[in-house]
Amino acid sequence: MSFSVSLQHRYAGFTLDASFDVPAQGVTVLFGPSGSGKSTILACIAGLLSAQAGRIALGGEVLFDRARNIDVAAEARRAAVVFQDARLFPHMTVRNNLLYGFRRSEGDAHDFATVTDMLGVAHLLDRRPATLSGGERQRVALGRALLARPHLLLMDEPLAALDAPRKQEILPFLERVRDTARVPIVYVTHALDEVDRLADTLVLLEQGKVLAAGSLHELSARTDLPLLSDRRDAGVVLSCTVDSSDAGQTRLQFDGGMLIVPPWSGVRPRVRIRARDVAIATEQPVGLSIRNVLPARVTAIAPHDDHECFVNLQLGGTFLLARVSRSAVVELGLAPGRDVWALIKSVALS
Ligand SMILES: Nc1ncnc2c1ncn2[C@@H]1O[C@H](COP(=O)(O)OP(=O)(O)OP(=O)(O)O)[C@@H](O)[C@H]1O
Q1: Distance, CA of 196 to CA of 29 (rounded, Å)
Q2: CATH class of residue range 2-220
Q3: Whose CA is closest to atom 5 on ligand 1?
Q4: Is residue 59 predicted with pLDDT exceeding 70?
Q5: Any transmembrane segments, and where (predicted)?
Q6: Are strands 61-65 and 53-58 parallel, antiparallel or unpaired?
Q7: Which among 130, 135, 140, 227 counts the fewest CB atoms within 10 Å?
């Protein structure tokens, strides 16, 4: 099932002309600099703004089609929105805030307990919003949204108002929602750490236009997207499964090989392998302290700056990015099609 969005809208000084087609599952992150049109797109999806032209369809359901005069009312779209500020009702307890949307849905007590447990708000039910921390308020806002049993969950920079420790506190809850709630999520942010942690699919926006849309893994391996490749820690994000674990190390399986990492107890680990942490050897090295040495094939080479190149590598269905000096590319005779060994010096786990 796909989620298909095509929108054209003009404000004085700003033109939105954005189209993307993404899977209607998991988290789709709209990422781009301030003013690139992220919130405008979200408002159109929510039904809070009618674009001057375009079409929005979730699976077979058309929510908006300007040409056919279809514009499903916001409530009927069943799209719950979580904003930067929690927007809870101040005079109501947490319980009543949570029950607000729930009453109107076909939910039952089991869902209420599941959601309050999942978001760690069960002990806050009798409190009022003013007595909660910013992170707790956002968890309640998320709970209220989930209990409305939305067909789409929309989040507009839900962590932007929180300080770094509160943000770290709430990210695992968002991961849990992504991994357990069967509702497609569209998530707006301009924070790359949130992209790394949460995105399954990424839509990159700049000045009202879509630069690229695709899986986070695929886009993180692209060298022609400065929004991603110019970051200091540019590199690919891989979703893995745990193969085995013992006291000393964990083995992570990915499509194309195995990674050895320090002991890890999570369920669906994601790793970021930074391009500067990947070296290339043309023969299998021996006597190395690096544990992750994997056979790979060079697929492309692109200049990064005056001194360095990005080398695209493929291992099975997985792409890696290595940053190596221009002189090394020449000396090693690296070229597309060449079989090499990728030496992964360090792996960042989230
Ligand atoms: N109601 C409006 N009237 C006129 N211009 C608007 C209106 N709403 C948004 N804009 C303009 O449209 C552009 C896109 O705004 P939008 O809020 O969608 O961007 P954004 O990517 O979400 O930005 P940010 O990350 O800063 O929230 C901006 O230039 C903004 O000033």
Answers
A1: 10
A2: alpha beta
A3: 11
A4: yes
A5: none
A6: antiparallel
A7: 130
